Protein backbone atom coordinates (compact mmCIF):
# COMPACT_ATOMS: atom_id res chain seq x y z
CA UNK A 1 0.00 0.00 0.00
CA UNK A 2 1.12 3.51 -0.79
CA UNK A 3 -0.01 6.41 1.38
CA UNK A 4 -0.09 10.12 0.58
CA UNK A 5 -0.19 12.42 3.62
CA UNK A 6 -0.69 16.15 3.75
CA UNK A 7 -2.81 19.07 4.87
CA UNK A 8 -6.28 19.56 3.43
CA UNK A 9 -6.26 21.13 -0.02
CA UNK A 10 -2.67 20.20 -0.82
CA UNK A 11 -3.64 18.03 -3.79
CA UNK A 12 -4.01 14.46 -2.48
CA UNK A 13 -7.42 13.95 -4.08
CA UNK A 14 -6.25 15.45 -7.37
CA UNK A 15 -3.34 13.03 -7.45
CA UNK A 16 -5.56 10.03 -6.71
CA UNK A 17 -8.01 10.99 -9.44
CA UNK A 18 -5.10 11.27 -11.83
CA UNK A 19 -4.07 7.71 -10.94
CA UNK A 20 -7.63 6.59 -11.72
CA UNK A 21 -7.24 8.00 -15.21
CA UNK A 22 -3.75 6.69 -15.90
CA UNK A 23 -4.42 3.15 -14.65
CA UNK A 24 -6.58 2.84 -17.78
CA UNK A 25 -3.63 3.38 -20.10
CA UNK A 26 -1.97 0.26 -21.52
CA UNK A 27 1.41 -0.92 -20.21
CA UNK A 28 4.03 0.27 -19.57
CA UNK A 29 2.35 3.53 -18.56
CA UNK A 30 -0.75 1.94 -17.05
CA UNK A 31 -2.47 -1.37 -16.42
CA UNK A 32 -5.35 -1.26 -18.92
CA UNK A 33 -7.59 -1.46 -15.88
CA UNK A 34 -10.39 0.13 -13.94
CA UNK A 35 -10.30 1.89 -10.57
CA UNK A 36 -12.38 1.68 -7.39
CA UNK A 37 -12.51 4.99 -5.51
CA UNK A 38 -13.73 5.08 -1.89
CA UNK A 39 -14.59 8.67 -0.99
CA UNK A 40 -14.98 9.47 2.74
CA UNK A 41 -14.69 13.27 2.57
CA UNK A 42 -17.05 14.17 -0.30
CA UNK A 43 -14.02 15.45 -2.20
CA UNK A 44 -14.51 13.47 -5.41
CA UNK A 45 -15.56 15.79 -8.25
CA UNK A 46 -16.91 14.14 -11.43
CA UNK A 47 -16.28 17.32 -13.40
CA UNK A 48 -12.60 17.21 -12.42
CA UNK A 49 -12.37 13.58 -13.53
CA UNK A 50 -13.97 14.63 -16.82
CA UNK A 51 -11.32 17.31 -17.33
CA UNK A 52 -8.51 14.88 -16.49
CA UNK A 53 -9.85 12.30 -18.95
CA UNK A 54 -10.06 14.94 -21.67
CA UNK A 55 -6.49 16.01 -20.96
CA UNK A 56 -5.22 12.42 -21.02
CA UNK A 57 -6.83 11.71 -24.39
CA UNK A 58 -5.51 14.98 -25.79
CA UNK A 59 -1.96 14.25 -24.64
CA UNK A 60 -2.13 10.60 -25.73
CA UNK A 61 -4.25 10.57 -28.93
CA UNK A 62 -3.51 6.89 -29.54
CA UNK A 63 -5.91 6.13 -26.67
CA UNK A 64 -8.78 7.64 -28.65
CA UNK A 65 -8.88 4.50 -30.78
CA UNK A 66 -10.28 2.52 -27.84
CA UNK A 67 -11.45 5.04 -25.23
CA UNK A 68 -13.65 8.12 -25.00
CA UNK A 69 -14.01 10.56 -22.12
CA UNK A 70 -17.24 8.87 -21.09
CA UNK A 71 -15.57 5.46 -21.26
CA UNK A 72 -12.82 6.61 -18.94
CA UNK A 73 -15.28 8.11 -16.46
CA UNK A 74 -17.36 4.92 -16.42
CA UNK A 75 -14.27 2.87 -15.61
CA UNK A 76 -13.86 4.65 -12.27
CA UNK A 77 -16.27 3.09 -9.77
CA UNK A 78 -17.19 5.37 -6.85
CA UNK A 79 -18.17 4.22 -3.36
CA UNK A 80 -19.23 7.07 -1.07
CA UNK A 81 -18.76 6.36 2.64
CA UNK A 82 -18.91 9.55 4.69
CA UNK A 83 -21.14 8.49 7.58
CA UNK A 84 -19.02 6.76 10.22
CA UNK A 85 -15.97 4.55 10.68
CA UNK A 86 -18.04 1.39 11.19
CA UNK A 87 -19.49 1.76 7.70
CA UNK A 88 -16.01 2.17 6.24
CA UNK A 89 -14.82 -1.00 7.97
CA UNK A 90 -17.85 -2.93 6.72
CA UNK A 91 -17.34 -1.62 3.19
CA UNK A 92 -13.67 -2.57 2.98
CA UNK A 93 -13.85 -5.85 4.89
CA UNK A 94 -17.07 -7.23 3.38
CA UNK A 95 -17.90 -5.52 0.08
CA UNK A 96 -14.73 -4.58 -1.77
CA UNK A 97 -13.41 -8.07 -2.55
CA UNK A 98 -16.74 -9.39 -3.93
CA UNK A 99 -17.01 -6.25 -6.05
CA UNK A 100 -13.55 -6.90 -7.51
CA UNK A 101 -14.54 -10.51 -8.21
CA UNK A 102 -17.45 -9.13 -10.24
CA UNK A 103 -15.20 -6.54 -11.91
CA UNK A 104 -11.82 -8.25 -12.41
CA UNK A 105 -10.51 -5.38 -14.53
CA UNK A 106 -10.10 -3.28 -11.37
CA UNK A 107 -6.38 -2.74 -10.86
CA UNK A 108 -6.42 0.21 -8.44
CA UNK A 109 -8.21 0.90 -5.16
CA UNK A 110 -8.15 4.41 -3.69
CA UNK A 111 -9.26 5.21 -0.13
CA UNK A 112 -9.58 8.99 0.22
CA UNK A 113 -9.14 9.37 3.12
CA UNK A 114 -8.46 6.79 5.83
CA UNK A 115 -8.25 9.34 8.66
CA UNK A 116 -11.40 11.41 8.19
CA UNK A 117 -13.88 9.14 9.96
CA UNK A 118 -11.52 7.62 12.52
CA UNK A 119 -10.18 10.90 13.86
CA UNK A 120 -13.61 12.02 15.02
CA UNK A 121 -15.52 8.79 15.70
CA UNK A 122 -12.94 7.36 18.12
CA UNK A 123 -11.69 10.24 20.22
CA UNK A 124 -10.66 8.70 23.53
CA UNK A 125 -11.23 5.16 22.20
CA UNK A 126 -7.75 4.27 20.96
CA UNK A 127 -8.05 0.50 21.50
CA UNK A 128 -11.30 0.19 19.56
CA UNK A 129 -9.98 2.47 16.82
CA UNK A 130 -6.74 0.50 16.45
CA UNK A 131 -8.64 -2.80 16.26
CA UNK A 132 -10.74 -1.55 13.36
CA UNK A 133 -7.75 -0.02 11.62
CA UNK A 134 -6.07 -3.43 11.85
CA UNK A 135 -9.11 -5.00 10.19
CA UNK A 136 -8.88 -2.52 7.33
CA UNK A 137 -5.10 -2.80 6.98
CA UNK A 138 -5.11 -6.60 6.95
CA UNK A 139 -7.95 -6.77 4.44
CA UNK A 140 -6.39 -4.27 2.05
CA UNK A 141 -3.08 -6.12 2.17
CA UNK A 142 -4.88 -9.39 1.47
CA UNK A 143 -6.73 -7.90 -1.48
CA UNK A 144 -3.55 -6.36 -2.89
CA UNK A 145 -1.76 -9.72 -2.70
CA UNK A 146 -4.53 -12.03 -3.89
CA UNK A 147 -6.11 -9.80 -6.54
CA UNK A 148 -2.91 -8.11 -7.75
CA UNK A 149 -4.42 -4.69 -7.14
CA UNK A 150 -2.56 -1.48 -6.28
CA UNK A 151 -3.77 0.28 -3.12
CA UNK A 152 -3.46 4.04 -2.65
CA UNK A 153 -4.47 5.68 0.63
CA UNK A 154 -4.67 9.35 1.56
CA UNK A 155 -4.12 10.42 5.14
CA UNK A 156 -4.05 13.63 7.10
CA UNK A 157 -1.09 14.79 9.16
CA UNK A 158 -0.65 15.45 12.86
CA UNK A 159 2.07 17.32 14.69
CA UNK A 160 4.30 15.17 16.89
CA UNK A 161 5.47 17.39 19.73
CA UNK A 162 8.10 14.89 20.91
CA UNK A 163 9.76 14.62 17.50
CA UNK A 164 8.94 18.24 16.60
CA UNK A 165 7.63 17.41 13.12
CA UNK A 166 4.53 16.52 11.10
CA UNK A 167 3.71 12.81 10.93
CA UNK A 168 0.92 10.76 9.30
CA UNK A 169 -2.25 10.63 11.38
CA UNK A 170 -3.65 7.52 13.11
CA UNK A 171 -0.46 6.53 14.90
CA UNK A 172 2.30 4.01 14.39
CA UNK A 173 0.10 0.92 14.36
CA UNK A 174 -1.58 1.99 11.12
CA UNK A 175 1.80 2.78 9.58
CA UNK A 176 2.84 -0.88 9.90
CA UNK A 177 0.36 -1.66 7.11
CA UNK A 178 1.77 0.98 4.77
CA UNK A 179 4.71 0.12 2.51
CA UNK A 180 5.56 3.59 1.22
CA UNK A 181 4.68 7.05 2.51
CA UNK A 182 4.65 10.31 0.60
CA UNK A 183 4.44 13.52 2.60
CA UNK A 184 3.00 16.22 0.35
CA UNK A 185 3.66 19.87 1.11
CA UNK A 186 3.30 23.01 -0.95
CA UNK A 187 6.50 24.49 -2.22
CA UNK A 188 7.25 27.84 -0.55
CA UNK A 189 8.39 29.12 -3.94
CA UNK A 190 4.97 29.23 -5.55
CA UNK A 191 1.51 28.42 -4.20
CA UNK A 192 0.49 26.52 -7.35
CA UNK A 193 3.22 23.92 -6.89
CA UNK A 194 3.57 20.83 -4.77
CA UNK A 195 6.80 19.27 -3.58
CA UNK A 196 6.78 15.50 -3.10
CA UNK A 197 8.93 13.91 -0.43
CA UNK A 198 9.12 10.13 -0.60
CA UNK A 199 9.49 8.56 2.81
CA UNK A 200 10.22 4.90 3.31
CA UNK A 201 9.43 3.22 6.59
CA UNK A 202 12.72 2.22 8.21
CA UNK A 203 11.09 0.68 11.28
CA UNK A 204 7.81 0.82 13.15
CA UNK A 205 9.01 3.92 14.96
CA UNK A 206 10.84 5.98 12.41
CA UNK A 207 10.67 7.19 8.83
CA UNK A 208 13.69 7.85 6.67
CA UNK A 209 13.66 10.45 3.92
CA UNK A 210 15.11 8.88 0.77
CA UNK A 211 14.06 11.06 -2.12
CA UNK A 212 12.84 14.53 -3.04
CA UNK A 213 11.27 14.48 -6.48
CA UNK A 214 10.73 17.35 -8.85
CA UNK A 215 7.99 19.89 -8.28
CA UNK A 216 4.67 19.32 -10.02
CA UNK A 217 2.19 22.03 -10.95
CA UNK A 218 -1.36 21.38 -9.77
CA UNK A 219 -2.95 22.76 -12.94
CA UNK A 220 -1.04 20.27 -15.08
CA UNK A 221 -2.38 17.22 -13.19
TrEMBL record:
<dbReference type="GO" id="GO:0000400">
    <property type="term" value="F:four-way junction DNA binding"/>
</dbReference>
<protein>
    <recommendedName>
        <fullName>DNA repair protein RAD51 homolog 3</fullName>
    </recommendedName>
</protein>
<dbReference type="InterPro" id="IPR020588">
    <property type="entry name" value="RecA_ATP-bd"/>
</dbReference>
<dbReference type="Pfam" id="PF08423">
    <property type="entry name" value="Rad51"/>
</dbReference>
<dbReference type="InterPro" id="IPR013632">
    <property type="entry name" value="Rad51_C"/>
</dbReference>
<dbReference type="GO" id="GO:0007131">
    <property type="term" value="P:reciprocal meiotic recombination"/>
</dbReference>
<dbReference type="GO" id="GO:0005524">
    <property type="term" value="F:ATP binding"/>
</dbReference>
<keyword id="KW-0234">DNA repair</keyword>
<dbReference type="InterPro" id="IPR027417">
    <property type="entry name" value="P-loop_NTPase"/>
</dbReference>
<keyword id="KW-0539">Nucleus</keyword>
<feature type="domain" description="RecA family profile 1">
    <location>
        <begin position="1"/>
        <end position="157"/>
    </location>
</feature>
<keyword id="KW-0227">DNA damage</keyword>
<keyword id="KW-0547">Nucleotide-binding</keyword>
<dbReference type="GO" id="GO:0140664">
    <property type="term" value="F:ATP-dependent DNA damage sensor activity"/>
</dbReference>
<keyword id="KW-0067">ATP-binding</keyword>
<dbReference type="GO" id="GO:0005657">
    <property type="term" value="C:replication fork"/>
</dbReference>
<dbReference type="GO" id="GO:0033065">
    <property type="term" value="C:Rad51C-XRCC3 complex"/>
</dbReference>
<dbReference type="GO" id="GO:0033063">
    <property type="term" value="C:Rad51B-Rad51C-Rad51D-XRCC2 complex"/>
</dbReference>
<dbReference type="GO" id="GO:0000707">
    <property type="term" value="P:meiotic DNA recombinase assembly"/>
</dbReference>
<dbReference type="GO" id="GO:0008821">
    <property type="term" value="F:crossover junction DNA endonuclease activity"/>
</dbReference>
<dbReference type="InterPro" id="IPR052093">
    <property type="entry name" value="HR_Repair_Mediator"/>
</dbReference>
